[in-house]
Predict the 3D structure of the following.
Amino acid sequence: MVRQANGNVFGESSVVTDALLGVRPAEADAAAADVKNSGPALLPQLIDLHPRFQDFGEFPVGSGTMVPLLKLSKLTVISLQAAFPAMFPHTSQLELLSVCPDYQVPRALRELGVLIYSPSLANSIDTRVALAPGGIEEVEIRLGCMIAAEALRRSMGASVSTIDFVLWSYGRAGCKLPHHYCVTQMY
């Protein structure tokens, strides 16, 4: 489980990037540091295509270290591969990606007890207080979502696209808890 104590998903931890890389396949560790060299070949082209695909979160906030979140880029690659497998045959490369961190996947993980928020963060979400786009709470929720979903995916032996679809669908249709609220164009 991803736990915290001080209002943020990771509390005082400064090792989130290491934890994020630690749950990914060993082959992806080096590539994750430079997103333009990771995942399917289409991903770098999407990142350069439009600002909405340039989805990075600064972590720790104020550090200048940018961590790839890439919700729309990853979703586009996963969707194109599913719709046109003959045109995008490199399915093994999809496993280098993580889930698409939006607002439904963390909602589902929270309701399932996999992602646990502090009482103050839970209260903010439950009362629909808007989180700042790119702020520490929003970035940590999305990073926590990626870490927790990857651990869940590995324990179940499922594909990234399957875990993403199941969690998103559950968040969309089955959850009673509200999702976090953030005014952003990234998801």
